[in-house]
Amino acid sequence: LSTEEQCYWIRESLKTFPQPPNRTNLTAIYGSISDLLVAAKNQKILVEVENPDVQERNEQNNGGGKTQSKNFKFVDDPEIQKEEECRSTTATTLVRKLRWSTLGLQFDWSKRNYDVSLPHNKIPDALASLAKNMAIPAMPSGEEFKPEAAIVNYYGPSDMLGGHVDDMEVDWTKPIVSISLGCKCIFLLGGKTRDEVPTAMFLRSGDIVLMAGEARECFHGVPRIFTESDQEEISALVSQLSGEDDCFTLDYIKNSRININIRQVY
Ligand code: OGA
Ligand code: MN
């Protein structure tokens, strides 16, 4: 990908991809959070507030079950003084805690499966057409790749992804298109069992990997990313994200890696 394209997808990964109805690792804790990046840029704080309607219902139901009596909203810094008792987290911290978001068909990490009953949007057109083009060399001739789901992984300095095989898609003859953005990482590609010694390679910003053919069935993982030690790697991005509006994004990507992997599920 060109530097311009990399910047575009980095911005989208932070601004658009975590938006509801897409689920993220934060959804299970805080419920739906809209406009997280805007909140972070404006130094907002997420606080837990009582939800009066639901609380009333809970009391009628004898405090019963799963109805949430609390929800979370963004407030400005000074307001927090009044609500000292509440649980609160800065929006900036939450962006740092973002580990994954899911586009298109929603992947349920607790069940390690696609949950087609969850509300979802289709994969954004620009991402779908990029994936279709990139998939061409790995597709049977005459067949077009159908981007149905994508998982976006966000890696901070000490995050990694353990060895795994992506085996929840129905048809393994279709590739996974995997885009690397930001800090470079070590990617390990092993064999069909955990016994085989993996091959290590660097993935850099703008690289696209096709997990196809034999590799589609192989164990793989990301044991580490590189940050400060290696800033030249992303200097092209740094100069292009120098506008005022990008200052948060720049700060983020200097020590983070983003991976967007696009899948045909059926
Ligand atoms: C995955 C995956 C690799 C990467 O999400 O299944 O293998 O490069 N990601 O982050
Ligand atoms: Mn994988």
The CATH topology of the largest domain, please? Jelly Rolls
Structural class: alpha+beta
The number of distinct structural domains comes to 2
Instruction: Quote the distance from N terminus to C terminus.
Output: 27 Å
Instruction: Please outline the major beta sheet.
Output: 5 strands, antiparallel
By CATH, the architecture of the largest domain is named: Sandwich
What's the CATH H-level superfamily name of the largest domain? Alpha-ketoglutarate-dependent dioxygenase AlkB-like
Q: Give the helix tally.
A: 8
* Shape descriptor: globular
Radius of gyration: 20 Å
List the secondary-structure elements in sequence, H or E. HHHEHEEHEEEHEEEEEEEHHE
Ligand inventory: N-oxalylglycine, manganese (II) ion
β content, as a range? 25-35%
Number of strands: 14
Binding site for Fe cation: 164, 166, 220
Region (Disordered): 51-72
Keywords: Dioxygenase, Iron, Metal-binding, Oxidoreductase
Protein name: Alpha-ketoglutarate-dependent dioxygenase alkB
Task: Walk me through the structure.
It holds the Pfam family 2OG-FeII_Oxy_2. One of its GO terms (biological process) is oxidative RNA demethylation. Belongs to the alkB family. It comes from Dichanthelium oligosanthes. Residues 146-266 form the Fe2OG dioxygenase domain. This protein has helices spanning 3-15, 27-30, 36-41, 52-60, 91-97, 125-135, 235-240, 247-254, and strands at 45-50, 70-75, 88-90, 100-104, 107-108, 113-114, 149-155, 161-164, 176-182, 185-189, 199-203, 208-211, 220-225, 257-263. With 266 residues, the chain is α+β, with helices and mostly antiparallel strands. The radius of gyration is 20 Å and the shape is globular. It has a 5-stranded antiparallel beta sheet, covered by helices on one side. It has a 4-stranded antiparallel beta sheet with strand order 8-13-10-11, with no helix packed on it. The chain has a 3-stranded antiparallel beta sheet with strand order 2-1-3. The chain has 2 domains: 3-25 and 98-263, Sandwich (Jelly Rolls); 26-51 and 72-97, no CATH class. Residues 57-66 have low confidence and may be disordered. The protein contains 8 helices and 14 strands. Residues 151, 153, 161, 166, 178, 180, 187, 203, 220, 222, 259, 261 line the site of N-oxalylglycine.
